[in-house]
Amino acid sequence: MLNPIKFLLTHQFKSPKAANQNSGFTLIELLVAMIVAALVITPLLGFMINILSTDRREQAKSNSEQEIRTALDYITQDLQQAVYIYNDAGLTDIAGQLPPGNGEVGCADGGADKCQPVLAFWKREIKEDVIPVGADFDDAYVYSLVTYYLVEGNNPANGNTWSDAARIARFEISGEVPDPTNANNILIEADAGFEAFNLGGSGDLETKMGRWTKDANEDYDLNFGSLVLLDYIDKGTPDGNPPAAIGCTGDETRVPDDNAVDSFYACVDSGETYARVYLRGNALARFQPNDSDYNPNRAGSLFPTGIIQVQGSGSLFTR
Predict the structure, then answer these.
(1) From its phi and psi, is residue 186 left (phi > 0), alpha (psi between -120 and 50) or beta?
(2) Residues 239-295: tens digit of each pLDDT
(3) 111-165: per-residue pLDDT in tens?
(4) How far apart are CA 282 and CA 230, in angstroms?
(5) Is the pTM of this model over 0.90?
(6) Who contacts 311 (Cβ-Cβ below 8 Å, separation ≥6)?
(7) Which residues are CB-contacts of 306 (< 8 A; sequence separation ≥ 6)?
(8) DSSP string for the chain
(9) Where exactly are the structural domains of the chain?
(10) CA 318/CA 309 separation, integer angstroms
């Protein structure tokens, strides 16, 4: 029979040795585990980052493509109402009557700021339900001058509302709607600065339309910051040939006739009230604003383009 005292003493002397035994990981084992984990996790993190980057890139491309299509659809509908489209010579003739020039907000032109008219035309548009006819109302037609601009810079002083890329702004002034029953009454006033074109005098239609001047007694009342149609338009002169650029043929003239403006321009035939418009966006500026210039080595899909061909539905005649 085992002596109880001997058993207790034996157990007492053995316990510290058992308690001091190391049942955890050694430092080398921990280091090896960390290295293995790093080798597994690092590629996974890289893979996830690449997926997120690709998704962001594809989303930017998709947004730009959709916005380019929408903007060109809008310009198409606008041009379809045109009765006269200015070619390059005509736009040069009236440029001094258009913004910039009278301190219009958001349309400074000089240095880092640019506000350049690109596409100008007169259109005949309907004003619905403006003329009282008994208990009802009738429609009226007015002439409007529409100009599309390529704008760079011109961000407000209180923050960068717009991207570092270019954008398109739309400027429009419309004529008045007189009261057909009272010559002294105006149902809708003309926009500030509006003056109708005059087909009198000598010269052909292009010459007469090029003589148009704004109302000398009124300045334009507008802020180009509220006239923006589309942001993230490519700017500057690309290094190499831009994708899907159009060339003007026959009686068409390039508007503006300036190779520095190659992301938004038109080929115009004033005599036929016809225009082809080219537009190039910049999706790269959405996620890489500090390095978004076009060059041939970058994916063309990041610079989506669109082209429209539009025939105006109206025309002007002169002797």
Answers:
(1) beta
(2) 555 554 788 988 999 999 876 678 999 999 999 999 999 999 999 888 888 777 777
(3) 788 899 999 999 999 888 888 887 778 888 999 999 999 999 888 766 667 888 9
(4) 11
(5) no
(6) 80, 272, 273, 274
(7) 68, 69, 71, 72, 278, 279
(8) ---HHHHHHHHHHHHHHHHT---S--HHHHHHHHHHHHHHHHHHHHHHHHHHHHHHHHHHHHHHHHHHHHHHHHHHHHHTTEEEE--HHHHHHHGGGSSSSS--BT---BTTBEEEEEEEEEEEEEEEEEEEETTEEEEEEEEEEEEEEEEES---TT---S-SSEEEEEEEEE--EEETTEEEEEEEPPPTT-------SSS-HHHHHTT----TT-----BGGG-EEEEEE--S--SSPPTT-----TT-EEES--TT--SEEEEEEGGGTEEEEEEEB-SHHHH-TTS----TTS-GGGS-EEEEEEE-S------
(9) 31-311
(10) 26
Amino acid identity at 156: P
Structure tokens at 112: 């880092």
